[in-house]
Every structure is written in C-alpha cells, then in structure tokens.
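Researcher: Re-running this chain for the archive, since the previous output was lost when a drive failed. Same request as before.
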Amino acid sequence: MRYNAFAIAFSALLSLAIAGTLHAQPEEAGPPEGAFSHDGLFLRFQTGFGLGRMVEKDVGGRDITMSGTAGVFRFQLGGSVFENLIVYGEMGAFSLTDPTIKGEEGYITTTSQSDITLTMSDLGLGACYYFMPVNIYIAASVTLSRDRLEIDDRKGSTDPGAGVYVSIGKEWWISDNWGLGVAVFAYASRMNARESEPFVGRYDVHNTVAGFVFSATYN
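Model: Regenerated structure tokens:
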C-alpha cells in the first residue's frame, strides 16, 4: 500500500518536473512580422525582351510598319491596399534598335547604314494581386504613352496617347521581403503622329509589344 502511494506520488512529481522543463524551453523563433507576405511598401524592377511593332495607319494609302526585338525596362512603386493587393505608379520603356521597316517607299528616308531607334515610353497607374501561398500574381496598368523615333540625327515624337500593360508572373522568396520572378507581358497603345521629322503629317499610331521579363520585388 505504501509502495503504491509512493509510486503515485513519484509519478506525479515526475510529470510536474517534465511539464515545467517543457514550459521553460524557449519557443522556436518564427519569421518576423510581415515576412513572406505582400503588405506595406512595394517596389519592383522588371527587365527583359519581347517582340514589338509600331504601325502608322493609312499613310498615303498604306501602313508604315516598324517591327523587331524590343528591350524592356519597367519600374513600379506603391503599397498595399490590403494584404496581397497592391496599387502602384510606374514608368517603362520598350526600345527597338534597327527595326525592320515596311511600306515606307520614300516616306521615311533611310539607308542600309542608318542608325534607327524606336522607343515606346510611358507613365502609368496599376494594380497587382498575389495568389498565395503559390506567389503567382496578375497585374494591369493604364498608361500615358509616347513614341520617339530617331533616324541618324533626325528625331521626332508622337503626341501622348493611351495604353495598357498587363502581366502574369511567378516569384520566389529569397529573403523575408525580397523576391525574384519571371513573367509574361503584353502592351498596347494608340496615339497620333506629330507633324515633325521623321514623322510627317498626323496619323494614327498603334503599338504592340509582348514578351518575357525578369523581376526583383521588395514587399
């Protein structure tokens, strides 16, 4: 009887000792608040390449087309409205060096030695939503866009026009707040040409670019 009472008392003391030891162990440190989540300040850089085309419509009864490989750069800065939903302002540019020109027939004077650069630049407002925990996002922005064309020492630009930029991407966390990613994008805009060399007259100009970008995002 005494043995049973002793055993029960010993078991109770042992249980209390184990419980006290476990309670005394420090809790495992978790990630800091805001880590691996989309809230607060938002900052994204994108660079990549795509296929671009500018079409100046109905110039003397035919379209003037410039097309080629486009280098891409975009910078976006904003913040979260609530977790996973971001709004931002952005600036971007698409640059086509020595594009292929079709339909000019003397409208744009070039030679095989001409240096030709077509730059499509824009300022925009956009929104981005992340699907978590897979960290895939969709983003869209409306833009105020303009084209600038340089042929040797001649430079001209269009009037500002409206555009849209959309992308779908995937990012991978490399730290608590930084992610690297890749995305596909599409861009389109419409504007009028100015009466200035190398643009002549006033015609509708249509731009399209589509391709891939790599991104670095802080959020």
